[in-house]
Amino acid sequence: MVVYDAVVVGAGVEGSATAYHLAKDGQRTLLLEQFPLPHSRGSSHGQTRITRRAYPQDFYSHMMIEATHFWKDLQKASDVQVYKPIGYVVIGKHGGQYLQNNIDAMKKSGAPYTVLDSAAFKRQYPMLNYPSDYGGIYDPDGGLLRADRALNALQALFKRYGGEIRDGQRVVQVTPEGQGRVTVRTERDVFVTRSVVLCCGPWTSDLTSQLDLKLQLQPVRISVCYWKESSQNSHSYKKLPTFFEEKCCAGHAIYGLPSEEYPGCVKLCLHHGPEIHPDRRDVVDDTWVRRSLSQYVQRHFPGLEPTPAVVETCIYTNTPDRHFILDTHPQWKNIVIGAGFSGHGFKLAPVVGRVLSQLAQGKDPSYDLTPFRINRFCPSAQL
Ligand SMILES: Cc1cc2nc3c(=O)[nH]c(=O)nc-3n(C[C@H](O)[C@H](O)[C@H](O)COP(=O)(O)OP(=O)(O)OC[C@H]3O[C@@H](n4cnc5c(N)ncnc54)[C@H](O)[C@@H]3O)c2cc1C
Questions:
Q1: Which atom of ligand 1 has the smallest separation from the CA of 346?
Q2: Of 146, 200, 351, best ligand 1 pocket probe by most atoms within 8 Å of the beta carbon
Q3: Is the domain defined by 85-144+218-318 classed in CATH 1.20.1730.10?
Q4: pLDDT per position in the chain (383 positions), as tens?
Q5: Contact 21, 44 (CB under 8 A)
Q6: CA of 203 to the centre of ligand 1 (A)
Q7: Ligand 1, residues 203, 222, 225: which to mutate, most atoms within 8 A of Cβ?
Q8: What is the structure's pLDDT at 382?
Q9: Which DSSP state fits 375?
């Protein structure tokens, strides 16, 4: 029987990036996915994601140095444009705490940025309508990632390095055996491996709970809304960078991107949604989300129609502090977990994949993983 060096469960962006790094390191790697690929049931589908160096925590901003290099290299290696550096702006009260936290973190990580005071903000973005004391922080390294293309490119390179993908294979059980082996059972097959990496997105708890590990993960449904520019619009939204405002809409953040996938439509979403189980994603009422967004659009984006022209669906898997889980199982070091990406994990997948692949190989990770440890929520999970 074949013994793999690593089996990665879940071919979303985090699992695919992990599998890529493992195969590149010469590890015999199998990537298992429950649905036929590609699919739109998890968190990694769709055409665009925001990328940025701007973060209120310097550890993410620091990780983004490597991630940004990776996306540019992936572009070259795959001959597909995945990164469009159109910039990113954090919107907020000029001099307010949230903007200041971003400035502090960017300074610490050496990221370039420009502070836009209220006059500069108004001049730069005449298509927006914010109070006169509002401004922004502009991040020139920010922009958008073409998500579907990036995911395809990652999986193609993984295969080029000798990796094997099997889709339509739901993992139903992960059993640690003696002598550093793990058995991975799907509905059809059984695989033996030296290490396993669980990157199961919103389904993670289904497998970790079998391994006596209760992770505080909460999947939420996100309505991905596209708002059409109205015909009487005096200022086009074409020059808009990607953008974010903290706690501004029903107590939650909003974020958005200029027209990319649907001509003439700005993508603007709430950074939150109703709690769900991923197998029953669409059985919830999200009227409050659309109503809150519509009010926000009418207040601040006067040139957009107040009802979304297109609505798609995606899932976040939130942790209580919205930071990722990147760790080994407290008892079995060859079971690695990457989860809880809380709606901001796409851009960082190259670094996430690298550290998870290092943990799976028993190597020291190249970043301090303290903010991402399991035992910050489960003190009994001694590592
Ligand atoms: C609307 C939306 C907007 C976002 N915007 C941004 C953004 O602008 N910038 C950013 O950086 N991030 C963003 N994110 C977050 C980012 O997309 C996610 O953090 C990331 O995609 C998470 O990837 P994942 O691989 O953990 O999960 P997933 O993509 O859900 O992948 C998990 C995979 O595991 C598979 N799986 C689960 N259980 C099993 C099993 N038992 N057996 C086999 N396979 C299994 C699933 O089918 C799935 O394919 C956004 C997310 C959403 C939903």
A1: 11
A2: 200
A3: no
A4: 899 999 999 999 999 999 999 999 999 999 999 999 999 999 999 999 999 999 999 999 999 999 999 999 999 999 999 999 999 999 999 999 999 999 999 999 999 999 999 999 999 999 999 999 999 999 999 999 999 999 999 999 999 999 999 999 999 999 999 889 999 999 999 999 999 999 999 999 999 999 999 999 999 999 999 999 998 777 889 999 999 999 999 999 999 999 999 999 999 999 999 999 999 999 999 999 999 999 999 999 999 999 999 999 999 999 999 999 999 999 999 999 999 999 999 999 999 999 999 999 999 999 999 999 999 987 655 44
A5: no
A6: 10
A7: 203
A8: 44
A9: G
- Taking the centre of ligand 1 as the mean of its atom positions, its distance from the CA of residue 133, in whole angstroms, is 37
Characterise 362 by phi-psi region: left (phi > 0), alpha (psi -120 to 50), beta (else). left
SS3 203: helix
What are 227's two structure tokens? Answer: 């708002």
Distance CA 208, CA 200 (A): 10
Domain boundaries, the chain: 3-46+148-215+321-376, 85-144+218-318
* 182 close to 194: Cβ distance less than 8 angstroms: yes
Report which ligand 1 atom has the smallest distance to the Cα of 147.
17
- Our mutation pick for probing the ligand 1 site, out of 8, 37, 49, 186, counting the most ligand atoms within 8 A of Cβ, is 49
Query: What is the 44 CA–ligand 1 centroid distance (Å)?
Result: 4
> Among 3.30.420.40, 3.90.700.10, 3.50.50.60, 3.40.50.2300, what is the CATH number of 3-46+148-215+321-376?
3.50.50.60
Cis peptide preceding 219, ω within 30 of 0: no
Distance from the alpha carbon of residue 126 to the mean position of ligand 1, in angstroms:
35
Cα radius of gyration rounded to whole Å, the chain:
21
Q: Which atom of ligand 1 is nearest to the CA of 48?
A: 8
Ligand 1 atom, smallest distance to 278 CA: 30
Centroid of ligand 1 to alpha carbon of 122 (angstroms): 35
- pLDDT for the residue numbered 178: 83
Say what the pLDDT of residue 377 is. Answer: 84
339 Cα–ligand 1 center, Å:
9
Amino acid at 64: M
Count other C-beta atoms under 10 Å from residue 212's C-beta: 10
